[in-house]
Specification:
By secondary structure, the protein is of the alpha/beta class. It has 3 domains: about 5-315, Rossmann fold (3-Layer(aba) Sandwich); about 340-405, Roll (Luciferase, domain 3), CATH 2.30.38; about 410-505, GMP Synthetase, Chain A, domain 3 (2-Layer Sandwich). Helices cover about 35% and strands about 25% of the residues. It has 18 helices and 25 strands. Strands 2-1-10-9-11-12-13-14-15 form a 9-stranded mixed β-sheet, sandwiched between helices. A 4-stranded parallel β-sheet has the order 4-3-5-6, sandwiched between helices. Strands 16-17-19-20 form a 4-stranded antiparallel β-sheet, with no helix packed on it. Helix 1 packs antiparallel against helix 2 (about 30-45), helix 2 packs across helix 3 (about 65-75) and helix 4 packs across helix 5 (about 110-120). The chain starts with a helix and ends with a helix.
Length: about 500
Amino acid sequence: MNLALLLARSAQAFPHLPAVALGGFVLHDYATLAGRVACLAGGLRGGLGLLPQQRVALVMKNSPQYVELLFACWHAGLCAVPINAKLHPRELAYIFQDTAAGACFVTADLAEAAASAQSAASALQNVIDVAGEAYAALLRHEPIAPADIAPVDLAWLFYTSGTTGRPKGVMLTHDNLLAMILSYFADVDAIASSDAILHTAPMSHGSGLYILPHVARAACNVVPESGSFDEAEIFSLLRTHQGVTMFAAPTMVKRLVAWARQAGADSANLKTLVYGGGPMYVEDCKEAMRVLGNNLAQIYGQGESPMTITAMDKALHADTAHPRHEERLASVGRPFIGIEVRVADADDNPLPTGEIGEVLVRGPTVMAGYLNNPEASAQALRNGWLHTGDVGFLDEEGFLTLRDRSKDVIISGGSNIYPREVEEVLLRHPAVAEVSVVGAPDAEWGEIVEAFVVLRPGAKITAAELDALCLEHIARFKRPKCYVFRDTLPRNATGKVLKTELRQRS
């Protein structure tokens, strides 16, 4: 089923309900949104000449246009490529080229970065500011009917951070995302047409994916006027909108709790706070429930199985009478209905309850593979299971607890950062002989990036110079927050750097 039909259904059933709001002001009801999407789809196909399944890049901060562009892409039979707005132009250029994007839509603050990356992408002919005349012209096209697509057609290309220096494009089909929507209703939360979702986390990631179940239920998508996370603005909007859901990284949850406690802010209209993207410490979770109420729900997922591996709903969070309540809070919940989770050994054999191994996933939400990367696809999906690279164990009740991340991914403020990507940039400097990047615990961000650097004999360099090198090649949020200069790196007998030892010394 074409995901665009979700919007058509809601517009038919609830034409006058609010669909998109900017702050406290409703911009479009469902009838208006559906009309704009159909015209915009006509502009994408007729005006820009985009072909079925061609890619459309979105390099945008959170904005009302995000909602209509996603659905316009699907309505037109195109594939959306939402891109992290914090990426460096070099990283944007790689994604443009890898996807052969035919068009890119930007918010004004990111127009320069996208334009500077455009020259590296041969297929990219149009970079369009969503606040400009070119965008308005697309909306003046004649509406078209939703494209007839196959369930396996691509709907969303989600770019992971690259473990080998290059990001990988996770291919998510219409069927994958429909399964994600149904999983949300089954195991995370119910949504009413009077509810709203407040997009304070990036719409290029989890918050954007949750547009889909809310449109399916004709709820309102609220974009803060700041386009970002601001505690005062959030609590102000909670006084305006009812039945509000938010998706937040654990560091965002902590900031909300601190603000509510300090300002005595009212969170009565916060219906559901879905957290994920990093570990939430048990005491932080308990404090959030004390301050904000029983509205916490947790999900564990990856781009390769979007927002859908395990979940722990509000009822499980609130079940304080359960003798293993704290152990449950320390877990990432139980597998979604219809999703198989296995903890396996090196040969993918299932391990007994309580034994630690790699987390494997199988089900209708699992990606079709990585774009233009059959080798990585075969490795990740071998033996019919998605290999997450995460390490954990299942208990006797089916709760999954993560113990480590075998890919060494650093999760800082909900964003994934892969050490090798940073290491390869630092090794570009002629003074650097060796480098090892690890995550160091941080009270605010969960983890920060720490680089252990060995210089070549006689070489000299400052942390500021290395910082400048990183800013030239990768996004600001990926650069190390701390540089430690050492004479050597600890290694085992085979010469492998002992990152565990470095983490203990950091």
